[in-house]
Design a protein that fits this description.
Length: about 200
């Protein structure tokens, strides 16, 4: 079991066969040292790719993205889900459907922060149906930037997200891949970690 799989088993709460709660270190309270280890692991996997920018989505993608950005020494841009009064520049926008909240959200970033010539690593906390990931990919594509791949903290492999991204030709790196879960336990698809 890798360090994240162990943490999920120790602290995660399976709310149903499809929803995992990890509020103690990722989605509500953040464990900074642990998140740094996650960021380092994602960064290691894309170290040789010449990443120039990380793009994520508020709010739970920000912590792993910032630590990966610290390792790769690149800026981290987060897409906003709500219109901000201070976000007045030219915007790139897309729409994301949330299966957990059963609602559509517009997401946006300022054009000036992601440009053609950028080689982007997209990071998010969970990969489920792939909606958030594809929405972020849409923003980056609209900026004419290149997508080097996706760094995901927890992938629910029994849902269609990975398949959708791979069908589009994207590289997907997930630190933990949940194969199956129930209130009796969680099983993982073995994933090797590069950092200790
Ligand atoms: P997707 O767009 O791939 O269907 O879902 C990704 C987004 O939904 C993530 O950014 C995450 O916020 C949320 N999400 C999906 N599944 C789960 C889950 O099992 N637990 C938690 N905490 N968030 C989830």
């Amino acid at each position: 079991m890798n360090f994240l799989e162990k943490k999920i088993c120790d602290e995660g709460v399976v709310l149903s066969s499809t929803v995992l709660k990890v509020d103690s270190f990722l989605n509500h309270q953040i464990d900074p040292e642990f998140m740094q280890q996650i960021g380092r692991e994602i960064a290691n996997r894309f170290q040789s790719e010449g990443i120039t920018k990380i793009v994520t989505i508020e709010s739970s993608g920000i912590a792993p993205a910032v630590f990966a950005g610290l390792e790769l020494k690149v800026p981290v841009l987060f897409a906003r889900k709500k219109k901000s009064l201070t976000l007045t520049e030219d915007l790139l926008t897309s729409t994301v459907y949330s299966f957990t909240k059963q609602e559509k959200n517009g997401i946006s970033v300022s054009k000036k922060f992601v440009q053609s010539g950028d080689n982007v690593l997209i990071i998010d906390d969970f990969l489920a149906h792939g909606e958030a990931a594809l929405g972020l990919a849409d923003l980056v594509t609209k900026a004419d930037a290149h997508i080097a791949g996706f760094g995901i903290v927890i992938e629910k492999s029994f849902q269609v997200g990975r398949r959708k991204l791979e069908e589009e030709g994207y590289r997907v790196e997930s630190i933990a891949r949940v194969k199956e879960m129930s209130t009796n336990g969680i099983s993982f698809i073995q994933s090797e970690v590069m950092s200790s």
